[in-house]
Model the fold of this input.
Amino acid sequence: MKRISLVGAAGAIGESVAQALRRQGRPYRVVGRNRESLQQSFGSDPLAEVVTWNPDDTASVRAAMHDVDTLVYLVGVPYDRFELHPLLMTKTLEGACAEGVERLLLIGTVYPYGLPTTPKVSEQHPRNPHTYKGRMRKQQEDLLLEADAAGRIRGAILRLPDFYGPRVEKSYLHSLFQAAASGGTANMLGPIDTPHEFVFVPDVGDVVTGLLGKPEAYGRFWNLAGPGAITQREIINRVFAMAGRKPKFRVAGKWTLRVLGLFNPLMRELAEMNYLLTNPVLMDDTALTGLLGGIRKTPYEQGFELSLDAYRRVGTSA
Done:
């Protein structure tokens, strides 16, 4: 049986997709640069095959794609190296097409939309990125859509908003859960009183596997929205209340990030994307819901409780 391959599987979304595949009893391959990291996350699963790759080596890319008919593309890059996104997609597509891979689903972001021009952003909203990161992500998407249009591979894109979940470190809310669990001070990016949306990471896997089985899903992109709009201040108050603690937090806005960026490259990069907190992209996923016949979305209150409990357990075992 040919396998589904999760390329760049070591992150939180990769684990969510793997869990969905396990529930379905489907074998899968995980591909990444670091074997030790992959073994730690997936080595105990008899359904998982661990494969390492070097994207700069054509033979390595082809070997990672061999005997696979479907790729879920989750490759991340450093936040200050977004020019790598189209480069890595080019190399992946070349290897995948050479090996006869039939389908590729890219897990994308809201960045290519740019500044929203409507209260809710559907797939018909123009892709007009005004940031460097948005342009690089759009180039990545275009490479896949062009390959699909040329008949080289079937390609689709699933766009996610910001996300959170149990021990999900690459999240705006990571510091909040840490602080609520341990009694510290949360570091937040502001402003914190504008509407925002977050996807609970464990919900993503079922959406991904659902899309993979729909021939009509390919040749276009799809939005996945959170369970509703919420402000970060609301989240802060709710999570600290769940922990039985008084809220303690500090907020870094755009100008603070720019000053910090003089000394810290990551802060400088975050400043570019601060528009997502002042002009949030709130997505309309009516099309995706219709395609899949409904989507399970964990309510914020339940997701916050599950996440806080996970952070507490980490603190207890530390």
